[in-house]
Design a protein that fits this description.
The complex is a heterodimer of chains A (about 500) and B (about 475).
Chain A (H helix, E strand, L loop, with lengths): L1 E2 L2 H18 L5 H27 L3 E9 L2 E7 L1 H24 L6 H20 L3 H19 L5 H32 L17 H19 L7 H4 L5 H9 L2 H17 L1 H7 L2 H21 L3 H20 L4 H32 L10 H4 L1 H15 L5 H15 L3 H27 L17 H19 L7 H13 L2
Parallel strand pairs in A: 1-2
Antiparallel strand pairs in A: 2-3
Helix pairs in contact in A: 1-2, 1-4, 2-3, 3-4, 3-9, 3-14, 3-19, 4-5, 5-6, 5-10, 6-7, 7-10, 9-14, 10-11, 10-13, 12-13, 12-18, 13-14, 14-16, 14-17, 14-19, 14-20, 16-18, 16-19, 17-18, 17-19
Chain B lengths: L2 H23 L4 H26 L2 E5 L8 E5 L1 H24 L2 H23 L3 H19 L5 H32 L4 H7 L4 H17 L9 H7 L2 H27 L5 H23 L4 H16 L2 H4 L2 H32 L10 H4 L1 H15 L5 H15 L3 H24 L15 H19 L2 H8 L5
Antiparallel strand pairs in B: 1-2
Helix pairs in contact in B: 1-2, 1-4, 2-3, 2-4, 3-4, 3-10, 3-14, 3-19, 3-20, 4-5, 4-10, 5-6, 5-10, 6-8, 6-9, 7-10, 8-10, 9-10, 9-12, 10-14, 11-12, 11-18, 12-14, 12-18, 14-16, 14-17, 14-19, 14-20, 16-18, 16-19, 17-18, 17-19
The chains are: A mainly alpha (about 500), B mainly alpha (about 475).
Chain lengths: ~500, ~475
């Protein structure tokens, strides 16, 4: 039984509200917030229904005529649901956070409009059933995030926007070249479990060329070294944007695309056979170490988090580019885990900046006494990033490590351990000084009952709890890990 | 008249009637007459397109004499699509002209535009090389009058420049078809296609026709008249020139090349046109990037976009043909929206420099949105008609193993992104305090938006125009 309208509705549930929000006047705060939340809840419900259906083995596909030999296909398979569920949940909390964060600032209709478009594009990327559809939404994501990056309208923000566009549009050009090359070789390549290029496997040169182009294009958004330059610069964006960009939307779109190409376009066996997996793993390993080292050097909290993202997203790429089930599980589950943990950290950074105007790491001394809940959430996120149980990050690293050993690549275990040490090196001092050192001067007391407005506090605590839960209940069938295992086993079934 | 004749005649007769009536009634009724004529022509064009979509190619002999003696008109999918494009894009530009031009110009602009419309529709439907010449000439002359409609110095200068380049172009074309007529004793395009043989006469004729039409379109390096003309003409006229009138001569070239000349010419000639197109793409984009006047940025972008069209000649496949036509149509909508948006900015803040866009996103959101959507189509980012065109051309360049054209297409997109975002990003800056924004009528803001939405819709449902295009693609 195929359901044809649900994938489209999931997409429209953020696209339409986004378009309506543009038309709202700046003062219509209540209407806008209501619309935002209504849309976010609708999307959560629709996603839940679809996830349950896919778990039961139902098919969801929307197919629209587009070009002569290429339809627009939106299809929900277990991999897209992993990404959609993550986006839907995090969109919901980020919306609440953004409403609180932007209280009383200018151009909020424009902000929330593009915010919704950005989520709609992410949904499209997750649901895309072939490369052409994927590309359409991938470009739409670039266009809808650009106004968010330059939202503040300062010269610095505009410069960051320029850098962002230069990187992403060049990446898109490479991606388009790769897509066209594959299209001329094999027609409209539909995403299929275990790959769709079996019939043209003999054209090795073209396939390798297309693979390199695709990885180059996707690598920009994933921020793989040396294509990562835009990510730290884009930190000028407002905190909720950074949170979403780093946790769900942009970098994840890249990582998701890389996984799609390896597993559902080429098929993991063909990629392995073409000999392009090892170079990708090396790039990912370099990125992991490079990002961690650079993070260690940053004094600005958001910059440190940005370089940490560079490093952490490369874990996903590393996982999917090692040939074996365990590493693939580790990479895919990190897609979810990193999202939840990183968004927590960005929320915390936003809270510190908003409440105490603290931006630098050195200024965080003793902040734990003034903002205990935020700092607790930060601690959970930081421990998870390092990979300390029982936070979710441990699960990912465990599987990655086992995968590296299974694939007889022990050097990768060294990379993982070094990176964990570096992570500890740039996160633990913050945690220590926040809790145990005395503040330089007394913090100004909070005007309200809580350490910061509830609209900012609740999302932060919620995502921290999620990071813990994903680790504690990893054994459950519907946990991110359970879902990922199910899906990986299908990809590797010979 | 039979019903087919009526179907094909109305899209030409109605704007002509409208033009004459508009001239006669003068000031009080000119807008009403033009409005009625526009709606009626749009309906007639849609009706014809509908019939073509359902019945296939329609032909009609004018005055009862068939080819090879008489003149034949032929409506295939391509012609139908062009009719629709003109009927949608042109009136939206003229809506904007109403408040942009003064009262007197208004009275003269509308009839002249209707004349151009009539000539273009006749050109699109005509299947006779000499008839094509006549309609081309009519378009040119009406266009010259349009350019100079303000009777100010920049306008007259621009008009004269255009005339000086377009006239030799017409003469070259005329000479070319005279040679063809002398050798093959027919002017009917279909008959010519059967009779031409490789040989010196055909080569010279093809060269003359091509050079003539390239002068009018214009293709690099014959584009030197374009930037000053586009800058000097009143903005609505520039929009018409870039969106529709320059497409008329390209349409003729495309028809004659693909149907008559391509089979009898050396493939290297097609490559040469492709090379010139590629240089136009890169050089035009580069110059657009280095302009400081808003209107000139958009004008130079036209040089580049026309360059893309000529990539069809080296590929010469049905897919490339579809891609080029798709670009003609989406560029018409996108570029018209850009020019009209530029007109709005000039009108509202009185600044012609690139800095005039500052604060645009807050003060004139619809104009800004139009500019953004139009720009996206020029770059060729989805969702836009420009992307579909680029996709088709890219596929053909890989498919025909001429990957170097793919490089040109991709590099051109990046350059286009650079000059489009140079405009767009300034509009996010806060509005300078000393700038006074005059309010402009809402319909002037909505006209460019409607044009940009056409470009957007072309990127969302490409299968419809593509299916229409395929009708009668090969004789």
């Amino acid at each position: 039984m195929t359901n044809t309208w649900l994938p489209l509705s999931v997409l429209l549930s953020s696209l339409l509200p986004g378009l309506i929000i543009f038309l709202l006047a700046e003062e219509q705060r209540r209407t806008r917030t209501l619309l935002n939340l209504l849309a976010a809840v609708t999307k959560l419900v629709l996603t839940g229904v679809m996830a349950w259906g896919v778990f039961q083995g139902r098919q969801y596909e929307t197919r629209l005529p587009f070009l002569p030999k290429a339809d627009l296909v939106l299809r929900a398979d277990s991999f897209s649901l992993l990404f959609i569920t993550l986006s839907a949940v995090l969109w919901f909390v980020t919306t609440i956070y953004a409403v609180g964060y932007l209280e009383g600032t200018d151009h909020r209709s424009r902000f929330f409009g593009f915010f919704s478009l950005c989520v709609a594009s992410t949904m499209g990327i997750a649901l895309a059933g072939n490369l052409l559809t994927f590309f359409l939404f991938y470009e739409m994501l670039t266009l809808s995030t650009y106004p968010l990056v330059i939202h503040r309208g300062t010269p610095e923000a505009l410069r960051a926007g320029n850098v962002y566009l230069r990187y992403t549009l060049s990446g898109a050009t490479l991606l388009l070249a790769g897509v066209v090359l594959l299209y001329s070789l094999a027609g409209a390549v539909e995403f299929t479990e275990r790959g769709a290029l079996g019939a043209v496997a003999a054209h090795r040169t073209e396939l390798i060329a297309a693979f390199v182009l695709l990885m180059g294009g996707l690598g920009v958004k994933t921020a793989l070294v040396p294509l990562h330059g835009w990510l730290p610069v884009a930190m000028v964006a407002p905190a909720p944007v950074s949170a979403l960009l780093h946790a769900v939307a942009v970098v994840k779109a890249g990582a998701f695309g890389i996984t799609r190409v390896i597993y559902d376009v080429y098929g993991v066996y063909l990629v392995h056979d073409l000999g392009v997996m090892q170079p990708l793993a090396i790039v990912a390993a370099v990125t992991i170490l490079f990002g961690s080292v650079r993070a260690l050097q940053q004094g600005d909290l958001k910059k440190r988090l940005a370089y940490s993202t560079v490093s952490q997203v490369a874990y996903i790429v590393l996982g999917v580019s090692i040939f074996g089930t365990a590493s693939t599980i580790g990479g895919l589950v990190h897609l979810v885990h990193q999202g939840v943990m990183k968004i927590t950290l960005f929320f915390c950074a936003g809270n510190y900046a908003e409440e105490l105007h603290v931006h630098r790491v050195s200024e965080l001394r003793g902040v734990g006494r003034r903002m205990p809940l935020t700092t607790a959430a930060f601690t959970v996120g930081a421990l998870g990033m390092i990979g300390i149980p029982p936070v979710a990050g441990f699960i990912s690293k465990w599987y990655l490590g086992i995968g590296a050993l299974e694939a007889h690549q022990p050097w990768l275990v060294v990379v993982l351990l070094t990176s964990s040490l570096l992570n500890a090196g740039y996160f633990l001092p913050i945690v220590y000084s926040a809790w145990f050192q005395a503040p330089r001067e007394a913090w100004k007391p909070s005007p309200g009952r809580w350490e910061i407005g509830l609209l900012l506090l609740l999302p932060t605590v919620a995502t921290a709890v999620l990071s813990l839960a994903a680790g504690l209940f990893a054994g459950a069938e519907l946990s991110p890990l359970g879902w990922t295992r199910l899906l990986t086993e299908r990809e590797f079934r010979p | 008249m039979t019903s087919v004749a009526a179907l094909m005649a109305w899209p030409v007769i109605l704007p002509l009637l409208g033009a004459v009536l508009a001239l006669l009634v003068g000031r009080p009724g000119v807008r009403l007459v033009a409005g009625v004529a526009s709606v009626a022509t749009l309906m007639a064009s849609s009706r014809l397109a509908w019939e073509v979509a359902h019945q296939g190619v329609l032909r009609q002999s004018i005055g009862g004499w068939g080819a090879p003696l008489g003149i034949e008109w032929r409506a295939d999918g391509l012609a139908a699509l062009m009719l629709l494009t003109i009927a949608l894009v042109g009136p939206l530009i003229s809506v904007h002209a109403l408040d942009h031009l003064g009262d007197r110009e208004d009275r003269e602009f509308l009839p002249l535009w209707l004349f151009v419309w009539c000539a273009l529709n006749a050109l699109v439907l005509s299947d006779d090389a000499f008839n094509l010449y006549v309609t081309l000439e009519l378009t040119t002359l009406a266009a010259v009058a349009l350019i100079a409609v303000r009777r100010d110095l920049p306008g007259l200068d621009a008009g004269l420049r255009y005339l000086l380049f377009a006239l030799p172009g017409s003469l070259c074309y005329l000479l070319g078809i005279a040679l063809l007529y002398g050798a093959h004793a027919t002017l009917d395009v279909g008959t010519l296609a059967q009779r031409v043989q490789p040989g010196p006469v055909t080569w010279v004729a093809a060269g003359l026709v091509t050079v003539g039409l390239c002068l009018k379109t214009p293709l690099f390096p014959l584009h030197v008249w374009l930037p000053p003309t586009y800058t000097g003409a009143p903005t609505p006229v520039t929009a018409l020139l870039s969106a529709l009138i320059s497409k008329g001569s390209f349409y003729v070239l495309l028809r004659l090349w693909l149907e008559v000349f391509a089979p009898v010419l050396d493939a290297r000639v097609g490559q040469l046109l492709g090379v010139l197109g590629a240089v136009a793409v890169l050089w035009g984009s580069f110059l657009a990037l280095s302009q400081t006047q808003l209107k000139r940025v958009v004008a130079y972008s036209s040089v580049a976009q026309i360059g893309y069209l000529f990539l069809v000649f080296p590929m010469a496949t049905s897919g490339a043909r579809a891609g080029a036509i798709y670009l003609v149509v989406s560029h018409a909508a996108a570029k018209a929206s850009m020019f009209v948006a530029v007109g709005n900015i000039h009108q509202a803040v009185g600044i012609t420099a690139l800095g005039g866009v500052q604060g645009l996103a807050y003060r004139m959101p619809f104009t800004f949105l139009a500019m953004a959507l139009g720009g996206i189509s020029l770059i060729g980012i989805p969702p836009s008609g420009g992307f579909i065109a680029k996709w088709l051309l890219l596929n053909e360049s890989i498919g025909t193993r001429q990957w170097w054209w793919a490089l040109v297409l991709l590099a051109g997109s990046l350059l286009a992104a650079a000059y489009v975002f140079r405009i767009l990003r300034g509009s996010f800056l806060p509005l300078p305090a000393e700038v006074k924004v005059r309010s402009i009528p809402l319909r002037n803001e909505l006209a460019p938006l409607a044009l940009a939405l056409i470009a957007l819709v072309l990127g969302l449902v490409p299968w419809f125009p593509l299916e229409l295009l395929a009708i009668g693609a090969s004789r």
